[in-house]
Amino acid sequence: MAGQATVTDVHPLDDDELHALDAYWRAANYLSVGQLYLLDNPLLREPLRVEHLKPRLLGHWGTTPGLNFVYAHLNRMIRRRDRNVMYVIGPGHGGPGLLANSWLEGTYSEAYPAVGQDEEGMRRLFREFSFPGGMPSHVAAETPGSIHEGGELGYSLAHAYGAVLDNPDLLVACVIGDGEAETGPLATSWHINKFLNPATDGAVLPILHLNGYKIDNPAVLARIPREELDALLRGCGYVPYYVDGDEPATMHREMAATIDRIMGEIDVIQHSAREGELTGRPQWPVLVLRTPKGWTGPIEVDGMPIEDTWRSHQIPLAEVRENAGHREQLESWLRSYRPAELFDERGAPRPELVAQVPAGGRRMGANPHANGGLLLKPLRLPDFREYASEVKKPGSTMSEPTRVLGRWLRDVMRANDDHRNFRLFGPDETASNRLDAVYDGTAKQWLGELRGTDENLARDGRVIEMLSEHVCQGLLEGYLLTGRHGLLSCYEAFIHIVDSMFNQHAKWLKTSKGLDWRRPVASLNYLLTSHVWRQDHNGFSHQDPGFIDHVMNKKAEIIRVYLPPDTNTLLSVADHCLRSRDYVNVVVAGKNRTPEWLDADEAVLHCARGAGIWEWASSDAGREPDVVMACAGDAPTLEVLAATSILRERLPELAVRVVNIVDLMRLQPASEHPHGMTDAEFDALFTTDRPVLLAYHGYPWLIHRLTYRRRNHRNIHVRGYKEEGTTTTPFDMVVRNDMDRFRLVIDVLDRVPQLGVPAAGLRQDMVDTRTRHDAWTRAHGDDLPEVRDWVWQS
Amino acid sequence: MAGQATVTDVHPLDDDELHALDAYWRAANYLSVGQLYLLDNPLLREPLRVEHLKPRLLGHWGTTPGLNFVYAHLNRMIRRRDRNVMYVIGPGHGGPGLLANSWLEGTYSEAYPAVGQDEEGMRRLFREFSFPGGMPSHVAAETPGSIHEGGELGYSLAHAYGAVLDNPDLLVACVIGDGEAETGPLATSWHINKFLNPATDGAVLPILHLNGYKIDNPAVLARIPREELDALLRGCGYVPYYVDGDEPATMHREMAATIDRIMGEIDVIQHSAREGELTGRPQWPVLVLRTPKGWTGPIEVDGMPIEDTWRSHQIPLAEVRENAGHREQLESWLRSYRPAELFDERGAPRPELVAQVPAGGRRMGANPHANGGLLLKPLRLPDFREYASEVKKPGSTMSEPTRVLGRWLRDVMRANDDHRNFRLFGPDETASNRLDAVYDGTAKQWLGELRGTDENLARDGRVIEMLSEHVCQGLLEGYLLTGRHGLLSCYEAFIHIVDSMFNQHAKWLKTSKGLDWRRPVASLNYLLTSHVWRQDHNGFSHQDPGFIDHVMNKKAEIIRVYLPPDTNTLLSVADHCLRSRDYVNVVVAGKNRTPEWLDADEAVLHCARGAGIWEWASSDAGREPDVVMACAGDAPTLEVLAATSILRERLPELAVRVVNIVDLMRLQPASEHPHGMTDAEFDALFTTDRPVLLAYHGYPWLIHRLTYRRRNHRNIHVRGYKEEGTTTTPFDMVVRNDMDRFRLVIDVLDRVPQLGVPAAGLRQDMVDTRTRHDAWTRAHGDDLPEVRDWVWQS
Question: How much is the pTM?
Fold first, then answer.
């Protein structure tokens, strides 16, 4: 166990162990090739015929034998040391290898009982791989033991580090492909070691797998001199160990000895850190494994070199149905693994192989961390009402929503301190986003050099900030998928940096929900603040509310979007999100001082409804409104309320209904989203025939996408961000995008006919005020005083 | 000049030069602080009063003095060596510094004649910074000499490398902030040196600026030991040079000497490469500059340390209007630069400063590469009709669209070979995307180690492939903004990796178009292939057609989206895109064998119209159709045509109109997009009252977003990708998403009433065939033969 061993704890492989290890590896390779090619005749009991072969060869070989080699040696290490080990497989298309190992160790059959450890099970294993309705060719949610999808490259190391946070007993073996190593997210993930606490977190063993080639190119890190690679890894803060070759027996001996040495190093680091002897940042080991791509596969096909070139990436023998020569070569390739030695008469792995497999939950395919819902403990959440602002009258007080939220989050951390299962991630913005109350209870975890002027940095802390949205997202995903809770706070515009990571996580959740053996995990919570309307310092480059549009393309059962208009609604929404499971929750909220509209009870009710009429702001009591003014988001809410108060003063006879929307998904039809309103509910809020003016936080057309099937859709007019902005004042931003109170009043006048002479005067006043705003702002660099100092009067 | 100097060409600063250099730096710092604070009294002719100060202090100080220091020393080097130097400033919020330098060298006044080099000009310079309608606080399109927006971090080095490709004479000095250095894209951009050809490309001088802090945190690379940083940079293939300190005179001497040494190294590399003496990959120099954040600013404010801490990031003295102490401190800070020594009576820079500035086009603010449209040469484009397939009858022949496009691209490269101004970028997929004909004419540029089995790799080539979409996009942006042409080909799903980079580029183009001094540049062309409908090998993780939705949020005048349904339309679209300027063109096209529908002339006409009726596929000749079947994208087109042929056979009386859409923007109202159809045009295609079934390549709701204002919108029913998929057959993919021919027929039957008994039988047949498909596919792993072998019969 960790801390007990020493660096001298190296046990050379004896010949029996070598033989057994190699047999296991051959079995995994055999089963991998079988998945690529075979529909039938899984044990090659008869000569290979065309009808045994899949009609469409889908899947990839190149990376697989190396992954199988790693798996076999990790099994040995787990058995010898009784270690708690999870794998993360970075390379794409490792599917067949991991499925083969899962089948060998029995975890495949436990997850999918129809696929037993016998000949029929092997046939099914082969057939279902990359087959319609079957198993994907990447390591995926369907793969027992995985928390990481192998499709899009670059996130393995961040996932691995996220998994070991607060899991001091856990080791994650993270295989990094040399293709993947070229991606940005991976390249910076090496530096996460500056945030890992060896005393309270587990260990990651990165295994950089240099098999030399991507789809069609050599890999960069495989084509730099050894001394450069060594410097690079040491520069990233690691101590590299190398295993390099292609002769199996030698490679087995080297790999076993090297993993023993590495585990000894890890044990020493953890032991000394936990005994308080290690106060600096340790240099963690990294294993560099150099093997031929397509190792043990065909060396040449049709006169072209295959093994150890990019040509082994996919299907080395592509014409096995049409070309008898290919078919013969495939058969001898398969037989080179000597299946009869590996599987018994029933098709089950022979005892020699089974002996290679760790026991029960120590099997990597059965590690409970990889099915995090098994370990998930609900958060203890302090009653958010106690943090709520007292709102005696709407709009009479102001607060900074995220600052108040920060106090509640601080106490969420405190309340769950003993479980160490809640974390906050952010690129560098927790304080900028005004969540800094959390530092009263914790710190930013930081293992880099400390200086006297530093604040809120400590070796142990619940907050991790690294200026890489990719790393923050990757850590959070790894943390959640291993059964914990968390929140990522980010500038709204820059969350697009992780659009594609979000895609993959949403796809993972969708797939997981369809697997009865995967347990629900905590939702992925985004708090997007420093949003489009308040980029006073930053301007145009920081203005993009489109992440909402992006997430909407994923499955409705996964996606939730909230736009709390004030502090208390933000608290209520945050409480809801931290209780939820298997969603992606996107919360967009302001950090700037904003009027408070609802008290705690009203906020709870409003958030539960998701959208509702604000009667205190409406003037349609007891009658059909002349116009519905709807708002979603804090800045739009402010402008709509300001517009209604102008209308109330200047056109008191006009019946205005104010509708506020917190839960954006409510706008969709009930048939499209679980939160969607029925048509009756929608019509009750928005009428069937009155003009609706809807001021929305983001790009206006999203509202049309959500509402186009509603009866009154033709009367809905949306104002929102239309990509106009610069470094300017808050009010100038809404003016530039035609969402300001004066423009909204004009919009009403344009849509409600027959308002007569008072309306004409009002319109001219509105036009004049906008002109005055423009002149004032350009002269004074500030908002019009009447806007800046405006206060809601009910 | 390059190649003439040697490493010994170091000229120590003498005292006069030191004094002048320091004066220039003080002037730049003074002008930077002025921009942050001053509305008036720019030369401090009178004591500072409240009314001289901006009411809202927006902007940032921390990074600026270091940037000014770099600029001053680059100027010295440019003057001494007459070098062609462009800057790229990575750190955010460097705006005031670069604007100060631009004003000092006169390029600001050339771009913005209202801001002269005199007291009134200085007043305007100060006032307009971060002021409504003024200059942004980041280095931006508005900044003379910039090709790089300083807002979102991480892309500087890729932009710099992109700029020097094929510009052997150009040096790009690229300042990388230590915050930015934590991002993934930057972390992997270091490795672009494995692709840079020192003989035919220019040089990048990366200047890693360690000022130690981000917004609220220490920077990782500033808190690792020197030996780790050194190893990291050497491991990335560079030779680091260090300048480290805070005492100005010493720092000036060290910086000048170090830059001399570095330039000598660069000259030696370039000279030996160009003489053929250097055949390996050179180790390029990198400069590591360590200076205090907020250098020369307030050391302490209100008892808190400011200089050399994160507190100097933004506005060091925040209450200068309210707090007289702050105001006094500001005044003495400003006076510490001794403005009277720097500016003459008129407010112009004194001759001593002017002498520091390089001449004319050598001023970095005037470098024509940074306004690439000035240098842009139109591509010579071979007539794409000569590459077109002969299509005698629609659907009678098949081809792989991207494979044919590859042949044309090969000849585009050849035709422009002497200009060296066209490049293809891709993560590792040029061959996978079947564009590999380009390798008949060129190679992948690669400076890494070469092996005997390698193919299509060479030191000089028009294709660059690195497995980082960020790097590919960054290189292309840098290449385009310096006046060249290019194309990025990428798997459709993974282009989301660069969503945020696209955002910034689109914002850059929008801003540039509003600046009369910026000339149009070539469009950024995406070829998205290996698309959602044909991920046979890859499955769910590779299925995401949402990039189209993402780009649609940007300004209509920038965005173009094309969905060519076959080979000849792809050729026509590609030709159009390579001729266009200042757009982002998104082309989604298949690589798989697809029927050819249009011959070259028809394709040209169809693409010019953007959308049109395919009469040869329609059965509504001379009458109003009973149903419009529309399609956008290759897979939808195939399914719609297959559905219409079922309908023609089984319900010959039904009048079906087939509409194909190539240019997606045509669907929008003319008021929303320059390509948008008028309502009359739209109604002529889609009718005002008939059911429209539209099969679309991507997420269906985008079509509703584009068409919700159309008269017939309520009758438009869209089929598209609804996030259902796995590793499966092509036809199973359309079935899973309800876009298959049989489902489309059922959709027609659902929408056209009174078709009677034959319709009932047809419906049942369609339902049965779908069931049969499912059973067949699961049994055989292949598509139903009647689907797989289906051929259009007109």
Answer: 0.97
